[in-house]
Design a protein that fits this description.
heterotrimer; A mainly alpha; B mainly alpha; C mainly alpha; A: mainly alpha; 19 helices; about 75% helix; B: mainly alpha; Four Helix Bundle (Hemerythrin (Met), subunit A); 6 helices; about 0% strand; globular
């Protein structure tokens, strides 16, 4: 709870700083505030892992929440470090952007720690409303406007589905509380049919938010139209948070065997569709940002594996995969922002010859691509490995084979940019990489490799 | 019970009119009538406070804004673009899937054992307030963040930039 | 439902309906007389003694005027507009307690059509619906001046509803009840009137009431020197009469609401010390309520002929930047006051 309070107060503080024209102080204050929030988050770490829910069962800030909140805060921290001088180029109201990002982070922490479906709904709404706004902050850019409107309409629609699902779950079980719902499932001889409809609708709502196929069609346009920094935020922090919410609902409430028989096939279909559509369409993209958007759909597919093979190991699997994906994506987006700012275009040709002129940038981007593709010795490999072992342990062999094939397709398009950087020559000047970017790039790359070489230190956390 | 079926019929009838009328202003007016029938549903459920809030917020404020925007844009039948047939078919298929899911589950539910409320007075203002400020205090307070972020965003998007870019 | 109950309520509804129409009709005369008084003229004085029959003459004129429906307009909505305006103006009277109960032998007649326990919110809801008549009528006319009037009415109503709601919240904190009957009963005598506890709230409420009734200085929807006739530019005959009537009925109902919420309703000073039978007290109470209502109607007119109309941006500034912050401050002050009172003056 103190984390939520800290971050929302920080948001209001930043708003006031903007009011008093303290433009220089905005970024440092935000970063320091995030560090404080991170410290408070770790403070909730409970070795015995028997945290009690608070506020009459509304929140349960256990180790799972600590891990995902920390991941969200750290990635927000890294993304915000890229924001120096970024918002200033868009408009004069910089403080409001930081405020809204912080509000979105508040929502994310709520959905990483909810223990009551009403909190899930409010958390998702806080996050989504902030994102609708952030998508549209380039007021004079039609692509940004279109993306914001599309995202808003689709998002509102999907929230409707989620809400409908929650209502039906409530109607059947008589409670919003996750434990109560589990007790209902365990105690009733025959589960009410509307409970199943509720599960379906909740899956649809959450898949919309996570961007799983076939509910992905807003993703490419929105990711491309939104300012790149916001895209980075959306495709990493937000996706992770939605998966945390997903996992929490299914693991605590809906994990009984009879229910699994019902929803596992649905998720298998969704996962394979996401893999197929995400990977195949990503191959045909000529622009780096759009490629990342489509590939994010395929990553949702891999993440869904953890739900399909639901067990007590699922949370660490999702956490590891999400961490690997988030860190690698942040590198990719940081590189993209550098290229976009100085070349103005993000098609693959603009990466030609980067390997010779900007060795650091090229190296980090290469490692990030390798991690996203799932090559050994990077974090992405460990993530995929855990997902696949989970799926195999529950005898989803066909699905795993299909996923491995897709991963091979993934290698192809991820390496395109690497090939462009190292093996295609072009006359170009060295790109200036600001210090903040360098820090983010190096830190993230180190994290990717450390997790890849020695995964145990975060895999066994939860 | 008969009254319920009559009002439910009206709700569905008017909500269908919302979809099928060509003129957006008519759609909004039908939507207002639909909300009115929903208000009556709330009253039938003895949820007086929700009924009146639905009345004030949806009929009295949100729909006025809707109508306001439509009138400013002055949309009418001619300006509505025709959707392609593919989209129409896809929409019908998706809608029917939802309908089948819901109707199927509700039919299987049966109405032999109607749910009895533990506290029939729960919809009155006093009881609702007690639940809201006791059990659901945290969601209630947290929604202030939702409202605040929406408000900051609305101002941000609507305000004119002083600097031309 | 018993037949006697239905008949009783039906009779009450008819009486209130007739009174509302009668008051509205004579308000038109009063308006002209007061305008004349404030401007040093005589006003209407030909029809009957002092113009007594002028409203009847006006009504007859309205009925016999040609009904014009513009060809390019939307026929159904064009007629629905004034009807809705009249409807929403009239249904507000259902929850107002016009007096205490009358006792005839065994039967007790309540002088209130419906005592629902969310009475204030009902009034608030009806007020918020009031704008539909204007909006629909203005849009259906297919005239840009009408449309402009309709749009102004919508934004004005939405803006002032918020401040009105805030002032009502502060009032509810004092009364602890949403039922108008209970609120009226609490204000027995003179010292208990809510206006003494909520002076700022009353000020906000009355300003918002002016805006919601579209009365000067907030009559921008029909400001005749900018918009011809505003939302009713295209209207004539009895449909125009409907709009005008709705305005006066709104004035009557909102005066009644203000009297009930803040000025004790049917209560009057020393009502419990006179030693009269209950029925007599009730009747005197009704008279007092109407006296208060007439005072407020007079106040409405007095302001209309004294204060010039606001400019549009002034109107919005007043609503959003003055009244809403004041309303919030009022809620906070009321909360503090309640705590202080409960702790120190028990």
């Amino acid at each position: 709870m103190d984390v939520i309070i800290t971050i929302s107060l920080l948001a209001i503080l930043v708003l006031y700083l903007g009011l008093f024209k303290a433009a220089k102080a905005l970024l440092p204050v935000t970063l320091v505030g995030l560090l404080v929030a991170l410290g408070l988050t770790f403070n909730h770490w409970d070795l015995a892992n028997n945290t009690k829910s608070i506020f009459s069962g509304m929140l349960l800030f256990n180790n799972f929440s600590v891990a995902f909140s920390a991941l969200a805060i750290i990635s927000t921290f890294l993304i915000l470090m890229l924001s120096k001088d970024y918002f200033e180029r868009i408009s004069a109201n910089v403080a409001e952007y930081y405020t809204i990002i912080l509000f979105a982070l508040t929502g994310i922490i709520i959905i990483a720690s909810y223990h009551n479906l009403s909190m899930l709904f409010i958390g998702i709404e806080i996050m989504s409303v902030s994102l609708y706004i952030l998508t549209g902050i380039k007021k004079r850019d039609y692509a940004s406007n279109e993306a914001a409107l599309k995202y808003f309409l689709m998002g509102a629609f999907s929230t409707g589905f989620l809400l409908f699902g929650i209502t039906l779950l409530y109607g059947a079980s008589g409670s919003f509380d996750l434990t109560e719902i589990r007790n209902y499932v365990a105690s009733s001889e025959e589960i009410s049919p509307i409970f199943y409809a509720g599960i379906l609708l909740s899956i649809i709502g959450l898949c919309f938010k996570a961007g799983a196929a076939p509910f992905h069609f807003w993703t490419p346009d929105v990711y491309e139209g939104a300012p790149t920094l916001i895209t980075a935020f959306m495709s990493t922090v937000v996706k992770t948070a939605v998966f945390a919410a997903f996992l929490r609902l299914f693991y605590i409430s809906l994990s009984s065997v009879t229910l699994q028989e019902f929803w596992v096939p649905v998720l298998v279909v969704l996962a394979s569709l996401s893999l197929l559509i995400g990977n195949i369409t990503a191959v045909y993209q000529q622009h780096f940002k759009r490629m990342l958007a489509y590939s994010s759909i395929s990553h949702v597919g891999y993440l869904l594996f953890a739900l399909i093979a639901l067990s007590s190991a699922s949370d660490s699997a999702v956490f590891l995969y999400a961490a690997a994906y988030t860190i690698a994506s942040i590198i990719a987006f940081a590189a993209l922002m550098v290229v976009q700012k100085q070349v103005g275009n993000d098609s693959f040709d603009n990466f030609n010859g980067l390997g010779r002129k900007n060795p650091l940038l090229a190296l980090t981007l290469t490692i990030s691509m390798l991690s996203l593709a799932g090559i050994p010795l990077t974090a992405g490999f460990i993530g995929k490995f855990m997902m696949f072992t989970g799926a195999l342990s529950t005898y989803h062999t066909a699905l795993t084979v299909f996923a491995v094939l897709n991963a091979i397709v993934g290698v192809f398009y991820y390496l395109r940019v690497v090939v462009a950087m190292y093996f295609k020559d072009a006359e170009r000047n060295e790109l200036a990489v600001p210090v903040y970017f360098k820090i983010v790039l190096v830190v993230s790359t180190l994290a990717t490799i450390i997790i890849g070489v020695y995964p145990g230190f975060i895999a066994d956390l939860i | 019970m008969n009254l319920f079926y009559f009002i439910a019929f009206l709700s569905i009838f008017f909500s269908l009119l919302v979809i099928f009328s060509k003129n957006p202003v008519y759609s909004v007016l039908y939507l207002i009538v639909t909300f009115f029938t929903l208000t009556i549903h709330y009253i039938l459920l003895n949820a007086q406070f929700l009924a009146i809030v639905n009345f004030i917020v949806y009929m009295g404020a949100i729909m006025v804004l809707f109508l306001f925007v439509l009138m400013l844009l002055n949309l009418n039948e001619d300006s509505e673009p025709m959707k392609s047939n593919l989209i129409k078919v896809a929409g019908v298929v998706a809608g029917m899937c939802l309908l089948v899911t819901l109707v199927g589950s509700f039919r299987a539910l049966g109405d032999s054992d109607p749910l009895i409320l533990k506290n029939p007075e729960i919809g009155l203002v006093k009881n609702l307030g007690k639940v809201l400020f006791d059990e659901f205090l945290l969601p209630f307070e947290i929604s202030s963040i939702l409202l605040l972020s929406a408000m900051v965003g609305a101002v941000l998007l609507a305000k004119k930039d002083p600097k031309k870019i | 439902m018993e037949l006697a109950f239905v008949i009783e309520k039906f009779a009450l509804v008819i009486v209130i309906f007739m009174i509302s129409l009668g008051v509205a009709a004579y308000s038109t005369l009063a308006e002209r007389k007061i305008a004349a008084f404030l401007q040093g003229r005589v006003g209407p004085h030909r029809a009957g003694w002092g113009g007594m029959f002028q409203p009847l003459a006006d009504g007859a004129k309205m009925f016999f005027k040609e009904e014009i429906i513009p060809t390019q307009s939307n026929q159904f909505l064009f007629i629905a507009g004034p009807s809705l305006a009249l409807l929403t103006a009239l249904i507000g009277s259902a929850v107002i307690p016009w007096g205490q109960s009358l006792t005839f032998g065994d039967t007790v007649v309540q002088l209130q059509v419906a005592d629902i326990n969310v009475g204030i919110l009902y009034i608030f809801g009806v007020v918020s619906l009031g704008v539909y008549g204007i909006m629909i009528g203005g849009w259906a006319s297919n005239n840009k001046f009408s449309l402009m009037g309709a749009i102004r009415a919508a934004s004005q109503n939405i803006s002032y509803e918020i401040a009105m709601g805030l002032s009502i919240i502060a009032l509810l904190m004092v009364t602890q009840s949403l039922s108008l009957k209970e609120i009226a009963a609490q204000q027995s005598g003179f010292i208990n009137w809510n206006v003494w506890a909520q002076p700022l709230g009353f000020l906000i409420f009355i300003i918002c009431a002016f805006a919601e009734c579209n009365r000067t200085p907030f009559d921008l929807p029909e400001s005749e020197n900018e918009l011809v006739g505003g939302y009713h530019t295209e209207y004539s005959g009895m449909k125009l009469g409907g709009f005008l009537f709705a305005e006066y009925i709104n004035m009557f109902i909102s005066s009644a609401v203000m009297a009930t919420l803040y000025f004790g309703g049917y209560n009057f000073p020393f009502m419990n010390d006179l030693g009269l039978p209950q029925n007599i007290i009730t009747l005197i109470g009704v008279l007092f309520l109407f006296a208060k209502i007439f005072f407020f109607i007079f106040f409405f007119m007095w302001v209309r002929w004294t204060v010039p109309r606001f400019r549009y941006d002034q109107l919005m500034n007043l609503g959003w930047k003055v009244l809403i912050p004041l309303g919030i401050a009022n809620i906070v002050l009321t909360g503090i006051w309640i705590i202080v009172k409960d702790t120190y003056f028990k």
